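so im writing up the methods section and need the dTDP-4-oxo-6-deoxy-D-allose reductase record in one place, dumping it here so i stop losing it
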Amino acid sequence: MVRVLVLGATGFLGRHVVRHARRLGCELSLASRRLGHDLANADGCSRLLDQVRPEVIVNCAADMGGVVDAARRPAAMLTTNARLLVNLYEAVGAVCPQTTIVQPVSNSAYPGDAALQREPDWRDGPVHDSVLPFAPTRRLLYALAACYRDQYGVRSVNWLVPNAYGPGDDIDPTRVHALNGMIIRMLKTRRRGERRFTIWGSGRPVREWCYVGDIAKILLTSWDRDDQIDPVNIAQRQGHSINVIARLIVEELGGGVELSHDLGYPDGAPTKILDDELFRERFPDFRFTSLADGIRRTIRYYRQVLFR
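--- predicted struct ---
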């Protein structure tokens, strides 16, 4: 039985990782701020690893939000995420360098002008200004993984991930990606009996979306792979505009909603679609949750938590 420590275990992705790890029969240890662990504190992080001595760490710990949230508190977001990563690698190097760290890397780390995101190009240009409070720390993650491998032999398996959506995320629409955020706001709009829904921004940006449970499964089936310092996309090579996603949500809710736009909100990068060639070499038979099914499950979840 593999000893697995999930960091950020009560967060959006972390909850799904925990659920899937239990199905696999892993010996689980959980850590998060809600559970009383301050991973931004270096001593606390070292003590945790000394107690658990994990064979595998699935690192879902991050201070994340949408572009609206990032614009509100950029310095705090950047500083916290840098500390989380530095503390983790310092602690692993000192306490348990034989541990394998498996972690998602947001595709916001790609250059801001990369329409089709290919792994060889992921550091070949500046990130988009809208993700400056977060994306540079994903490139720091790569540097830490490479340097701690070279000096201490720490193994890392890094996956570049698109926008995640699905059940279990925050109920604050500014703290989630656009798909979940629109579901939250649209359900509230309908609850109030209103027939007009406002999309934040132009609705034109195109994003690739991945159901959160699919990401969790991939992370938990990759810890025994070779060192993967250079991250590989978790990808379907499919993108949909925010406007298209909004219409799909309206259809799933039974229609009867008129869409409008508030151009006072930022759009972010125009297009983010991930190339899937390397992913299909590693997981040729993986079947992703369909967008329609994922939206249906997400609506069901938010109906339960918003109106119980």
